Amino acid sequence: MSDIKIGIIGGSGLYKMDALKNVQEMEIETPFGKPSDAFIIGELDGVKVVFLARHGRNHTLLPTELPFRANIYAMKKLGVEYIISASAVGSLKAEVKPLDMVVPDQFIDRTRNRISTFFGEGIVAHITFGDPVCPNLAGLVADAIASLNLEDVTLHRGGTYVCMEGPAFSTKAESNLYRSWGATIIGMTNLQEAKLAREAEIAYATMALVTDYDCWHPDHDSVTVEMVVANLHKNAVNAQKAIQEAVRRLSANPVESEAHSALKYAVLTRLENVSPETKEKFGVILQKYL
Q1: What are 224-261's pLDDT values in tens digits?
Q2: Residues assigned a catalytic role
Q3: DSSP letter string, the chain
Q4: Where are the domains of the chain?
Q5: Does the 6-114+132-260 domain belong in CATH 3.40.50.1580?
């Protein structure tokens, strides 16, 4: 499956890619458990890609329940080198309106109950994470969105994504705290994906789809599920168009990414001293270095 270079992770509202052709489903086992769903392998305009519904195709997984390690490990096992992640978010800035798209370049971690690394069990690795998304891939995704001139959509290049635990939405005090930090958007999923993709040496970028103003905005009702769902459906149509264009551009001109060598100086453990069992478990991640 090494001919699959591009992975797509669909968030709330984006459970399939309608434009995929020659589709097949694949169940993948990992040392980190079962991924969120079967992987959907197909072609977008002749480019082979793999799609995963982050919460399952029937949206059965809470953000905290997501098997992040299994999802990213399986992408790596398939040969994926680039992940484009679509994610529903709330806005923390007046100028970032519902239905807008944001391609963030920073994250703030407000999660508490999640494992954000593959390593441990005798292997210590410390990736650099100052720039948590691949700037070249993020730029390509942003250019793809901009080229489409989507109705009612303003593109915002860069910005900070606050990743909260959930599943409840923010209190007003929390929302205003994040605004005071200068954050742009808030969601519940992408921080772990970004960290694990970096450890797996996969270039990663987020396409954030704004559904609401969180609860801080004085002229808007606090966020409700009904409000979010209505905008999710509109966002999903736009997201599929943008992803299709990004895949076309990436296939034609693959971008370079420092993520592809992220472990070169990150592993502190002498791997020759690691047990065969541990080497086997981490083999897909550490294949270049064993």
Answers
A1: 667 677 788 888 889 999 999 999 999 999 999 999 99
A2: 212, 214
A3: -TT--EEEEE-TT----TT-EEEEEE---BTTB--SS-EEEEEETTEEEEEEETTTTTT---GGG--HHHHHHHHHHTT--EEEEEEEEEESSTTS-TT-EEE--EEEEE--S----S-BTTB-B----SS-S-HHHHHHHHHHHHHH--TT--EEES-EEEEE--SS---HHHHHHHHHTT--EEESSHHHHHHHHHHTT-EEEEEEEEEE-TTT-TTSPPP-HHHHHHHHHHHHHHHHHHHHHHHHHHHHSPPP-GGGGTTTTTB-S-GGGS-HHHHHHTHHHHTTT-
A4: 6-114+132-260
A5: yes
